[in-house]
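Known limitations

Structure tokens in this collection are predictions and should be treated as such. Users comparing against experimental data should check residue numbering before alignment. To illustrate the layout, the record for Gustatory receptor is reproduced below. The input appears on top and the generated tokens appear beneath it.
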Amino acid sequence: MENIEDRTNTENFKSPSLLKNIMFLFGVDTDKNSRISSSKTAKLCSAYQRFMSVLWIIYFLHFVAVTFSYEIRSPATDFRESISRKFADVIAFLLWLTLKSRCQRISDLLNDILHLGRSLNVAFKQIWDKIGAFVTVGVLLTIWVSTNVEFEERECKSVLAYFSFNYFYVGEGYNCKIVCITMLFYQFATYTLRTCLAVLYVILCFHYSKLLHKLSKIPYKVSDSSVPNSIRYHFITYESIIKALKSFENTMSLPIFLIEIGDCIAMFYCFVKMDPFHQSEERWFLKNYSLSGQFFALRAVLSFLCVSLAASRVHEACKNAKDVQEEMMKKLIASDEEHKKEFLLLLVTHNSPPFTLSAWGFFYFDRGLILSAIGSILTYSLLILQLNTK
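Generated tokens:
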């Protein structure tokens, strides 16, 4: 019976392995330092990661070559539109570089959150890992389908020439099949890491807020002789959570900044290209690519909202913990018992502002951010639409 309980507890306090495996497949190995360096598995994983690094460098060089050859030098292409459209490739490569340099820090913060979960008996539910992996793969497959469903043979030939610099030719009738496979690899390379990391970020934010809510709900009595120990436990645990959140912020703020900027540009670009006021001369875009444009806009909006709401939930949980600390201080003051040290501990903790996650310090995640950010995007989009019609 004890073995069954131990095995259940071990399963409850595991990190999100499926999401980590997806990141590993695309060149981010968060478990590399946990393996024995001389083992065969470690050597194979290291060789695979070096291979993925080469592929990422090829991906970036191909992006630079395509952008310079077709986007910048072509007189028929608008430079601003090219930058907006190709920004996802830049985000993908920068995100890989950033995560590659922070593998150990990501591993440490996952261990920290599991340790805090054990101390507060808050398990990381593996169902969220499975849902996160399902969402990641589902979004990627939907992106792939939406960008391929409307291609004709003539368009497939042009796309193939675009990606291969006119050096790759196939027989008539096979262009769309080759493009379908090419777009699968391209879309997965461009959107896998950013989708997976956004999902992981949302899950971890919910878990941090759950830890703070659990700490705030721990009962205590001022008249009880265990008050000093209870307040010290609250103080130490709260400081441990805040320390873990600061580590989380330092590790994830730059990657999340890249993802959020990418989502904002995608919303802006799709809104302009969808031409809601029917003023653009590019009606061919809506005729041929309306489905993919709508899905990319929806994906960007949902990604931005989910990340922002999850991060703002941490801020709200910290505010709730501050309210609980204030109630504890009021009861200490009103009680006949003298707990000067405990009161000072609570006072120091309560006087610090509620912790707020940020996107690399450029903007901070609270509920007021969401409407202002989306409103700004719509305002600038409408401005660009008006300028394009003059």
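For this record: Residues 283-334 form the longest helix (52 residues). The chain has one domain: 103-387. Please report discrepancies through the issue tracker.
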